[in-house]
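note to self — DONT lose this again. spent like an hour looking for the file last time. sequence + predicted structure for the chain T wanted, 294 res
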Amino acid sequence: MTSVNSVAVLGTGIMGAPMARNLARAGLDVRVWNRTRAKAEPLAEAGARVADTPAEAVDGADAVLTMLYDGAAVLDTMGRAAPALRPGALWIQSTTAGVEALVGLSRLAAERGLVFIDAPVLGTRQPAESGQLIVLAAGPEPVRPALAPLFDAIGSRTVWVGDDGAQSTASSLKLVVNSWVLALNNATGEALALARGLDVDPRHFLDAVAEGPLDNGYLRVKAQQILTGDLTPSFATATAEKDARLIVAAGERTGVRLDLAAAGADRFHRAVSQGHGLDDMAASYYASFEERGE
């Protein structure tokens, strides 16, 4: 394939919607589908065609991009969509599905004659909206030129880490990066929770580490969310728990004990149980207390 002119985006949530919007702005023929149609309908204003079924969305498309909740959702959705895709179409799998799920997904691609590209992305809502995601990709070299305009529309750069999407090299890297992201998020929440417990002004903590080796941009972003109570999700707590479980499972399969990731998954679970599942994962701060927190 020398070019991609049409792409179907399956999943238009926090990440999928802005990705689809940027693809449409780049001049691609974009079709979108979401389990809850109302979440996809605003994309019509950007020029995307809203479909009622996954099969309708992908019919005639050069490529399909999946950005759904987890591997099971991707397998179910693509099971319904794949019969409408022509052999040789590109399947760009960007859901954080973990390593184990890639086995079934790549098998489905092979059965249907699709070219499977393992391509999770780094970034949350704001980078997705501004087209500044980092694409981690694994796939055959012959299709990379065709994918370049698509990846350029959604990201600031693409990191190719392998030639075979079925080997899950990109998804493995995504889990490594997310293990760091989730640990930073939870460390920020615990530090501010301890400050509250000790009656320390949290801004004094932030001032104490300012501009030194202990400071970082992620600390500032998450601390601001906690201190202002603005938990508008860029990475939902329920999704963070799902990713943390995938990280722990990946470690277990390879004989790597991940104590911090396991404890972090439990923190996210407590926050979800308190009613923060759809809030930003900074809400894991509240897992340090009995009350739900507002």
